Amino acid sequence: MIQQSEIQVEKLIKPIKKAEGVPAIEARGLVKIFGDNRAVDGIDLTIPTGCIYGVLGPNGAGKTTVINILATLLKADAGTAKIFGHDLQREAQIVRQLIGVTGQSATVDEKLSATENLVIFGRLLGLSGSEAREKAAELLEEFGLTEAAKLTLDKFSGGMRRRLDLAASLIAQPPLIFLDEPTTGLDPRTRNQMWNMIRRLVSSGSTILLTTQYLDEADQLADRIVVIDHGRVIAEGTPHDLKTAIGVAALHLRLADNKDIEEAILIIQTVLQVKASIPEPALITAPMADPERITDLLHNLREANIRLAGVSVQEPTLDEVFLAVTGVTKQAEKGDTTQ
Amino acid sequence: MITTQIIPGAERELKNHTSFRMTISNSLTMAFRSLLKVRRTPEQLFDVTLQPIIFTLMFTYIFGGAVAGNVHNYLPIVIPGILVQTVITASMVTGVQLREDMDKGVFNRFRVLPIARIAPLAGALLADTIRYGIAAALTFVMGYILGYRPGAGLGGVLAGGLLVILFAWCISWIFAYFGIIARTASSVQGISMIILFPLTFLSNAFVPTNTLPRWLKSFVNVNPVSHLVSAIRELTNQGTIGHDFWLSLIGAVVVVAIFAPLTVRAYMRKA
Q1: Is there a contact between B5 and A170 if contact means CB atoms under 8 Å apart?
Q2: Domain span at B74
Q3: Which of A129, A220, B39, B202 has CA atoms 20 to 30 A from the CA of B21?
Q4: What is d(CA B115, CA A6) in angstroms, rounded to the nearest whole number?
């Protein structure tokens, strides 16, 4: 398959115009029901070619189910979806030639070595034995796994496994890659490596659909984000749109002495030009619209001889996204259902 | 590699079906994968190595005197019987191992690859013919050590071995089907045992059928295992091919014709 598509490059110059408008994914009204759980409940997605699209949501929101449907692993109970204009149902085998899947949804073989895994996938994709071994070596090198090539997977660390997983999805150089929570459970350093890998993939022309539980990750990587919960889309937009909807980070100032609180509030409101609040004694919180002004603020507090016990900045959390876009907190919602 | 530009998805020309050549190649690759796994976990071969040795010893010495007067006269009767029982039991293990294998995430990757849908199953079942081969060879070797000298010589033994391996491969589609529809590997084992025990013991594999009550005899006579055992006895002891041979062959083909499509469909539907 790979050789075929490479040969076709030259004669493909013509149809480029026609292809321009075709989105990588176009899904309408996807529904998947497990028993009485509507895991996916009418999801529409339009994902343009060449971007990183983040699907953000808590555990059980339906992220993996959406990927499983789009990757032909699950049949939707209702709705249609097209991958590069190919219908998921009628042209499933074509769709499979266009996608790579990594993460919870599809993994590698535990009992085989890294090389054996990649060679088998390469052979299945139509490479000859020597081509498959070459490709495997190349990918292992690319992902910094050459030293571990002969090890079986049970000797791999979490980060190495994810990298091999990703490598396995890239053998056929698919134009669309599904990454199902690619960094969940990874330490910060490995997570950064993964992020860089993902950015490089997109620069080569791939389209990426990425699911994550972390707002931070979606913010770092995605060009557009869709927030889903209970199988429904509850917000869609650029990371900037979403952050505006949520509001900004909050500045937390803890005073060494509660008697300064009146004066401190006054200074904060004058310098930051925002309204501050006192959630508990000696603690002041205020929205931090412009981080530049914090220097001024701290300087003024020092001038007024107000001593601080602690300063912190709270980034908006996923819960706050839900609060902002649905007006319901996770806790309040739970309270509703138990009543 | 990542730095080279990939071909945009909308501009690729692709086919929606897998060619026959590709299907064969995919299945062989999957079979190769199974063999690699066996090399990594040789304990998967316990059932096809220990069972033929133990069963041959046990049955020969327990039943030999009672059924045939002595061990030597019993061997031509019991070796084909044990052969069939061992190899068919091994084909049941195929279903159990397939279930275990399918519970791993890697099977999802096979399902999202543009490969022939039948390949992961066909490959696994094909690789298992090696297991049947080992079981068959060990049974004959044990028989030889105990004094079995098949009348039709090596040719008959080879023909008998091939027939039983082919039969077991066909039957293994049934157990593969249970392997796919069952929830856990242990339930596959449970279901399969219930089928396997009556099928192998209510046959002519270990005893002559002339002392059986009539109702039992009529079952034993239609039991495909009986036909297979008779066919192998004819092949190994007389070197002849009778109607039992053709009956078992037809039976095996019918099983594949029914269960292969059923199994592949169930496999495709299972998440």
Answers
A1: no
A2: 22-269
A3: B39
A4: 19
